[in-house]
């Protein structure tokens, strides 16, 4: 059985190429603004906020940029703003109609803050509302996991923020990012079978813990909150690797599945310590994704790489449980 998500996964490389070709100049201009403000607000919900977490944590390790991440309604209710403040507001949404994020965007406009919207829908409310719109060219997505949206959104955030960061290896990041469509294509072809087998092996598990450090926490969040819970209908919980010993260590019992993302970042020393304890001492079932097994790139780009095998894993995990990985049961039916 082939689900709609399959086609959308395979379209990711071309979505990246089209977005780079169409929006690079626009993003370069916005990057100049990002480099001149005191604070950058990144706003999203669900999968979109995971891209915000990733770029924030990537830059926190190499830059002095002040970046704050909020869900839409948390920004509306819990962020004090000043009229005309020297900040940049960047909203992310697949549909451009996410009520939480759209409300936050309108609030930022009320305070005369420069606003950016990154969305996959050119006629959406968020694209029309923002001062600086960016359209990711992935075409409308129907599968809930939003594969094309995730990877193009994340790429746009990197293209805007890394050139403004002062990071000494920004040129390397940008060059490798430009080559990402080809790498994603290779990963789509090379990682399917192993992750299909892994999904069949773990199909009867009801819960997963997902851990990553630094830039990979955002992807661990996406893996748990949207990929496993929404796509595969499995219980899941995301954690920073450093938080393993604060709570999870009491649940990492024999056979309990823990998914680790390890990119050999400096902070992945904590990921490796968690793996050693969980696997070697507590006999938990540790599923480890190592960046070095997939690509030789700057580890701050790891989410672009890890997401592909994880998509295959979740795709087949849903399939082996009789679920369509792109469908939903309740999302979109509850409005507030």
Automatic annotation (TrEMBL):
GO molecular function, one term: carbohydrate derivative binding
PROSITE patterns for the chain: SIS (PS51464)
Gene3D superfamilies attached to this UniProt entry: Glucose-6-phosphate isomerase like protein, domain 1
Keyword Coiled coil: no
Biological process annotations from GO: fructose 6-phosphate metabolic process; protein N-linked glycosylation; UDP-N-acetylglucosamine metabolic process
Annotated ranges, domain SIS: 29-172, 198-328
InterPro entries assigned: GlmS/AgaS_SIS, GlmS/FrlB_SIS, SIS_dom, SIS_dom_sf
Top-level division of the source organism's lineage: Archaea
Keywords assigned by UniProt, alphabetized: Repeat
A Pfam family: SIS
PANTHER family, per database record: GLUCOSAMINE--FRUCTOSE-6-PHOSPHATE AMINOTRANSFERASE, ISOMERIZING, GLUTAMINE--FRUCTOSE-6-PHOSPHATE TRANSAMINASE (ISOMERIZING)
Protein name: Phosphosugar-binding protein
Annotated organism of origin: Methanobrevibacter ruminantium (strain ATCC 35063 / DSM 1093 / JCM 13430 / OCM 146 / M1) (Methanobacterium ruminantium)
